[in-house]
Amino acid sequence: MKKTLRLLCALLCCAALLVPAATADVIWEPQGDSFYESHREECEYLFRRYTANGPDGYLTLWKAPGSTAQVVNLPNGEVLGCTWLYTAPGGVLWGGAEYEGDWGWFRVSETVVVPDYLSFEEAHGDEFVPYDSAYDHAFDGLETVVLWTFPGSGEMDYDACPANWFTNNVTPAEAFQKCYVDGAGLFWGFTGYVMGSRNVWICLSDPANTELAADETVLPVTGLVPTAEEIPAPANVIPWVAAALVVLVVAGTAVLIPLVCRRKKR
User: Fold this and answer.
1) 3-class DSSP state of 149
2) Region 240-255: what's the mean pLDDT?
3) What pLDDT score does 26 carry?
4) Please, which residues have CB within 8 angstroms of residue 5's CB and are 6 or more apart in sequence?
5) Where does the signal peptide begin and end (predicted)?
């Protein structure tokens, strides 16, 4: 019996170790969002960050696309991590995001996307060049390789990548299908996946340098609307209170009418 229990415990421990590997790429979905649940097939998963840029100085998160119920109003300049996109009839694009624990939907047209690899390709895709075999040994003698969001971003990925990942898993020629030469003559390569990181750029001319300066002219951000001096409370608060009062009045009336009728009969 003891041997059986030990065997079961060992199997459970092995299963626990395997869970992270099996669930690492699971896509997160909002819980309790009735709109998402009923439109799941029409929503597109794409993680991007957006800066609030509403025309009135703030951005509204709505209960659902097209809803009149507001979740929260947040000041322009706040950054949202958007995970789901929904295109409403008429072509209006909505993004689903969480802000300080509140989940809601916003009009993408009232934001400015935080520059990322997609923005870079949209702006500079026609300047991309093929991989150059001169960089086949760019990682020789290095311990780590720095991952960047795009050339000139000045923003590194959270973790550096071990240089031997390329020699053990993929060759540079296979990894870097899109390349770019920046204004300083540095040669960059884009890879869709490397050591748990997705959609990153590596400076093949200087792959271990963490001090590469940002160049704001690569993807300039324009059209920002100043933040409003006062951010209004969500407009749906009072209507909900009013609706609750109406329900109470109706319920009270339903109880009182029979009582009045009985007294009259008596």
Assistant:
1) coil
2) 47
3) 63
4) none
5) 1-24
3-state SS assignment for residue 7: helix
CATH number for the region 28-114 comes to 2.30.30.170
Alpha carbon distance, N-terminus to C-terminus of the chain:
78
User: Hunting for tokens 């300047």 — which residue is that?
Assistant: 127
Kindly tell me if the per-residue pLDDT of 246 is higher than 50. no
Domain positions in the chain: 28-114, 117-203
Which sign does the torsion angle of CA 259, 263, 265, 266 carry?
positive
Residue entry with tokens 């750029």: 201
Q: What is the pLDDT of residues 198-242, one digit of tens each?
A: 999 999 999 999 999 999 999 999 999 999 999 999 986 444 444
The answer, yes or no, to whether residue 259 has pLDDT greater than 90, is no
Alpha-helical segments (H) within the chain: 2-23, 34-38, 117-124, 164-169, 172-175, 237-265
CA distances from 226 to 70, 208, 261 (A): 22, 38, 62
> Rounded to whole angstroms, how far apart are CA atoms 157 and 165?
16
| CB-based contact 208:202 (threshold 8 Å) | no
